[in-house]
Write a structure and sequence with these properties.
single chain; about 325 residues; alpha/beta; TIM Barrel; ten-stranded mixed sheet; 11 helices; about 35% helix
Length: about 325
């Protein structure tokens, strides 16, 4: 049976027939893309010399209250997204390779896994060779990941929190705290060794949410026991809500030092730690041809041609 006809691709298990109506992710069975191009704001190995070849998919199984990609993660994706056939998606992948992208970076593709796998088959047959990055919230089902895992070189996966209260407030679903464990079990089983120079394995992202430092320390302890010899860590401290009517106090000097001390205490050395004081506004505007700050991204002309064609009708 078509995987979209009774969709169980994400932990929501909404079982909606997405060939007829949209699931909790906000999407049908037609791949919808918000933007594609080179992006130079990812972690250094992923970005490389020219940038990471990004494909931002519309929709999301989560509905995080403070999502930086809020324009495309929910119903708003109907206003900014572009429909792609599987063959067009394959050509988009190949066009990013022609742009000299370091990696193919698939952002929030969970609810389109069957189509992405089919597109990769077509692209590979036509000479596609880029390392494939699965850029994910971590709200995944192992059964769905098994369909895309053979194509993935590097998992760039969030572990947002292991605490239900934190997940309820910042991730939109308290169930995230339970879903992330089998997701990471699957990833660690299939990518048990990480070599960032070769873009192989798993890079775990964790953002410190405001007022939740004790829960981050609990995550770091978990990471040290579960992941330390298998993954690299990208620890982020710049929480920027997309709407300025909600203000959270920035991390203090003492909290930042406590965080750095915790990395030493838990023996976590491999990876990256975001510096404080970054004044770049990373909230993208996907209505623009280049949604990111000047100098950090280049649009993909093939994507723009599809977009202009659809929006001119």
């Amino acid at each position: 049976m078509n995987a979209y006809e009774r969709c169980e691709l994400c932990p929501n298990l909404c079982r909606v027939d997405r060939t007829r109506r949209k699931g909790i992710c906000g999407q049908s069975d037609t791949v919808r893309i918000a933007w594609s191009g080179l992006h130079r704001g990812e972690e250094p190995p992923v970005t490389g010399k020219y940038g990471s070849g990004m494909i931002f998919f519309c929709g999301c199984p989560l509905h995080c209250q403070f999502c930086q990609n809020h324009q495309i993660s929910g119903k708003a994706g109907e206003d900014v997204g572009v429909n792609f056939s599987v063959s067009e998606l394959a050509e988009l992948m190949l066009s990013l390779q022609r742009m000299k992208a370091t990696t193919l970076n698939l952002v929030t593709g969970t609810h389109f896994i069957p189509s992405i796998a089919s597109a990769l088959d077509i692209a590979i047959d036509k000479g596609f060779k880029l390392p494939v990055v699965w850029n994910s919230s971590g709200y995944e089902r192992p059964e769905a990941l098994a369909l895309i895992d053979p194509y993935i070189d590097l998992y760039l996966v969030d572990v947002k929190s292991l605490d239900e209260k934190v997940c309820s407030l910042f991730c939109g679903r308290k169930e995230y705290a339970k879903a992330i464990i089998p997701c990471m079990d699957f990833i660690l089983k299939h990518k048990s060794y990480t070599d960032l120079e070769r873009l192989k394995g798993t890079l775990v992202r964790h953002l410190v949410f405001p007022g939740t430092l004790p829960k981050t320390l609990e995550f770091l302890e978990w990471y040290s026991k579960k992941c330390i010899d298998k993954c690299a860590l990208s620890l982020m401290v710049q929480f920027i809500p997309p709407k300025q009517d909600v203000i959270f106090p920035p991390m203090s000097d003492d909290e930042y030092e406590m965080l750095l001390d915790a990395l030493d205490i838990f023996g976590i050395e491999d990876g990256f730690v975001q510096e404080r004081g970054d004044d770049i506004l990373w909230i993208p505007d996907f209505r623009e041809d280049v949604p990111f700050p000047e100098g950090f991204a280049d649009a993909n002309e093939y994507f723009l041609s599809i977009k202009r064609n659809q929006y001119s009708k």
